[in-house]
Amino acid sequence: MLSLTALIRRSAQVNRHGIATQFEGRQRTWPQIADDIARFAAGLAARGVRAGDRVALLSFNSDRFYTSYFAIPWAGAVVVPINFRLTTEEMAVLLNDAEPVALLIDAHFSDRIDALRRAVPSLQTVVQILGGQGAADTHFDELVQSAPMPDAGRRDDDLAALYYTGGTTGRSKGVMLSHGNLVQNVFQNLAMLNYDQGDGVLHVAPLFHIGASVNEIIFTAVAGRHYFLPAFEPTAVLTTLAEQRIQRVFLVPTMINMVLNHPQVSTFDLSALRTVLYGASPMPEAVIERARALWPHVQFVQAYGQTEASPCLTLLLHDQHEHHLRSAGQPMMGVELAVLDDDDQPLPPHQSGEIGARGPNVMQGYWRNEKATAETLRNGWLHTGDVGYFDEEGFLFVVDRVKDMIVSGGENVYSTEVEGALYRHPAVLECAVIGIPSEQWGEQVHAIVRLREGHAVTEAELMDYCKTLIAGYKCPRSVEWRREPLPLTAAGKILKRDLRAPYWENRARQVN
Amino acid sequence: MLSLTALIRRSAQVNRHGIATQFEGRQRTWPQIADDIARFAAGLAARGVRAGDRVALLSFNSDRFYTSYFAIPWAGAVVVPINFRLTTEEMAVLLNDAEPVALLIDAHFSDRIDALRRAVPSLQTVVQILGGQGAADTHFDELVQSAPMPDAGRRDDDLAALYYTGGTTGRSKGVMLSHGNLVQNVFQNLAMLNYDQGDGVLHVAPLFHIGASVNEIIFTAVAGRHYFLPAFEPTAVLTTLAEQRIQRVFLVPTMINMVLNHPQVSTFDLSALRTVLYGASPMPEAVIERARALWPHVQFVQAYGQTEASPCLTLLLHDQHEHHLRSAGQPMMGVELAVLDDDDQPLPPHQSGEIGARGPNVMQGYWRNEKATAETLRNGWLHTGDVGYFDEEGFLFVVDRVKDMIVSGGENVYSTEVEGALYRHPAVLECAVIGIPSEQWGEQVHAIVRLREGHAVTEAELMDYCKTLIAGYKCPRSVEWRREPLPLTAAGKILKRDLRAPYWENRARQVN
Which of A52, A405, B141, B302 has the most C-beta neighbours closer than 10 Å? Predict the structure, then answer.
């Protein structure tokens, strides 16, 4: 009974006059956007898109991304949002895994059409959704002339979307999320967040990422006003929030930091803003403290989760920040969360283990990848790949990725903890801690360090410094110096897999 | 993945020190109540209660009602709340339909134990949950000494409860509500109501009724503080709300009216109160207007629904009262609502028809009653038995019960509209309008009227008065005078079925 498209239909029923989307001066009301979706879906169907088919979406944030995201399931098909930061070759790998029949593309990617057509044989149609038609087969403006089709009526266990994971720890996989998965996570969020019908929301984090999709679907459910920025730029964010009197926004921590560093930040009128949801990567304490001080009327809410959980698992509410700033928060309603031992039994507070999750928001599995599905969904738990622990109050602390944890002389060493110690040294600009092979310890703690310009420190000095902060067995046994920035994923996380690779050639690391 | 008991487990995880229940000086924290539930469930299991078994619950509101309500599904069984206003004979009819293996009973009903045991052969155990053990087989205090059992892990489509309907229009039926049904309706409510963890709630409407269960389950989900009053009494309600600084309460309209009429109502400090949810019967405009004026800081929210929908379908939010006071509100998120024609096709705004509903909160069916299930759940819709219409803004107006609607000379006449006209006459104390057989019109509009003491009016005067307010074909063609009060259901609704019966003996009325 739950579906993405039912949310659209209800919002058009209960909010007849309110703005649904606004982008570059183009406004649509809720009945208008529902009509656009039904017409564009009919146009896609006329082009051969059938129930269950995959349709890829390669676009910056815009009202056309939004319309496409809901028109695809309205036609009964499965939306495959594509990370636009990938190379054409990388995109082709994902697309040949998903095998979409159609590609919906905006003007920024028109020059990729020919290459993608050649590389992806399943593609039958390329639809330009914004900008000139160029090499595409047809255009949004043409398809939206179709007579509206009835909602295909997908629901609950029907596949709604394939989101390809960032792949910090291996090949990218297609996460299968059903209509029920995505809508349940919206309800889980709304049960704890006090959002109101008609609230304005700014979409500035890229909507191909599930972290940004959350607000896209939530504010569809609450019949809100959607504003879009195609790219992140601090002045544009502040201007749009102020001028449109927007109440809610999702930002990743680096975006919050850049907005706070805007020289005129305090001159913008953000009195309408009420909630900043943040997540997707760790939040430095100094940043959140500055943000809270600058905007005391705003509620800051941290979400922790992953694509496989549609995506939210815990929330740290505003009032919980004071005493639990370093926590990821508490399990959301309808989510069962446990820290698991090696036999998948729940551990007591303060013992670390892999974080396991259950709930109606847990994915159906990985697309055409039974092996990875069986490894991740086993014994009734989603294995998140994150290591963490609970405190006595039921607050979750995430300490590392399982695959980044180092087992040295039988002791678990969390790479993030060692990195935290290194970062406190004034000479350290950037660092990553990995496990490398060791005859004596199995793995040994190894640091890769980039120094600030004009600073110098020796390996021995850095090791001694660490010993003043953390236990000796956790301190690096070896340091490697870098001058260039460390390799990052598209989501801005350090690619430790690539850093480890040269050390483990021809050797089996238990998790790689 | 969704279950009543998972809500208990999460609340014990996230609210370690807060009060869960308070009744007559006895307090339990969330970990304590979860432990009580796991122990009491183990005691029930030791007494032979198995997964899928029905367990009846006959009790005034108390912390023991609450503990029982969740311990029964914790043991895997199905809770059957019994309307305590029924006669023993009426209870026996329901119980022999449900065939419970155990009966949980409080001190107010101890004197019924022997009669119920004789009348209900399926009963193996009677457990006294409050007061002396008397004729019961065992007592809560004994069973709660058992070692705690793990949650039986019922979920989603597993049957959680049988609620017997009030039966204004026929034999009482057991409404089968699954764990998913009940929990989904909680999420649907919480998506629109801004409740917070730890909020206090007063349970004063009887918890055997699904209208009161809503808050019981919602404030289990939000790990709130539950307070209980065994019976409605205005002074006790006002005192408890004030002294315990309670934020939320569900009241039926007659309760609100009686509280407002309390001579010292304005002397109680209700500054903590933030939401009054009301519903289950129509709210007179004068009452809600007085309530809003007296407590301007309180949000009043009307819910419309029925047991078959677990139960809420629409909400009228506080800010919507001003322009839509006579409406039942808008469809909740995740609920699909339509006004249906005779072919179950949705009608446009302002056309009346039967209200149909879809959603994850719609019941599984009627217990052991395939015929009634097939009549009610057909063509993909729950047929609510209510007649209503939408306005252009998506607000629902409920005009009558389908079975109370009169078809006279091919025109639909809504009994509630005619009653509304009659009630405006100063001599009318109580009235009911029904359809009786007519050679000429098929049915004719017939009024049953009880006059105020010291007032007099003739049949012709009353008919003429009606003609000044409503169309002629809607006005009564005949009036019947009563001195005694009209017959009521346990829920306080007029029993029109009984009023119609003498007129339709040996005749077939299409809906009876």
Answer: B302
Residue B394 lies in a domain: no
**pTM of structure:** 0.89
Range of the domain at A343: 4-389
| Residues A195 and A92 reside in one and the same domain | yes
In which band, very low, low, confident or very high, does the pLDDT at B322 lie, cut at 50, 70 and 90? confident
Q: Which of A332, A359, A389 is the last residue of a domain?
A: A389
Q: Say whether both A338 and A282 belong to one domain.
A: yes
Q: Domain containing A418 — which CATH number?
A: 3.30.300.30
Report the number of distinct structural domains present in chain A: 2
Nearest partner of A220 among A302, A160, A280, A303, judged by Cα: A160
pLDDT tens string B263-283? 999 999 999 999 999 987 777
Is B167 domain-assigned? yes
Tokens 């695809």, located at residue: A72
- One domain, residues B274 and B225: yes
Q: Pick the residue of A7, A8, A14, A182 with the most B CBs within 10 A to test the interface with B by mutation.
A: A14
Report chain A residues whose CB lies below 8 A from the CB of B2: 334, 360
Distance from the B342 Cα atom to the nearest Cα atom in chain A, whole angstroms: 21
Which residues of chain A lie closer than 8 angstroms to B14, CB-CB?
330-331, 393-394
What's residue B512's pLDDT?
Answer: 47
For residues A403-439, one letter each, b for 16 or more C-beta atoms within 10 angstroms of the residue's C-beta and e for the rest, the string is bbbbebeeeebbbeebbebbeebeebebbbbbbbebe
Q: Flag whether pLDDT at B305 surpasses 80.
A: yes
What pLDDT does A512 receive? 47
Lookup: tokens for B163? 């609620």
pLDDT at site B167: 53
Structure ipTM: 0.87
pLDDT of residue A414: 87
Residues B376 and B429 in one domain: no
Kind plus residue range of the DSSP H or E element containing B56:
strand B54-58
Question: Do A215 and A309 reside in the same domain of the chain?
Answer: yes
Which residues in chain A touch residue B9, judged by CB atoms under 8 angstroms apart?
A: 336
Same domain, A358 and A490: no
Identify the segments of chain A with pLDDT beneath 70: 166-170, 490-492, 508, 510-512
**Mean pLDDT for the stretch of residues B394-423:** 88
List the single best residue of B333, B363, B392, B393 to mutate versus A (max A Cβ within 10 A).
B333
Buried b (16+ CB within 10 A) or exposed e, A314-339: bbbbeebbeebeebbbbbbbbbbbbb
* Whether residues A125 and A257 fall in one domain: yes
Residue after which a domain boundary falls, among B389, B420, B438: B389
Cβ–Cβ under 8 Å, residues A221 and A11: yes
Residue A396 in domain: no
The predicted structure's pLDDT at residue B22: 98
Q: Which of A459-468, B207-216, B294-303, B434-443 has the lowest mean pLDDT?
A: B434-443
Residue pair B226/B7 in contact (Cβ under 8 Å)? The answer is no
- Tell me, yes or no, whether B227 and B292 share the same domain: yes
Q: Please check whether residue A179 is in contact with residue A77, taking contact to mean a CB–CB distance below 8 angstroms.
A: no
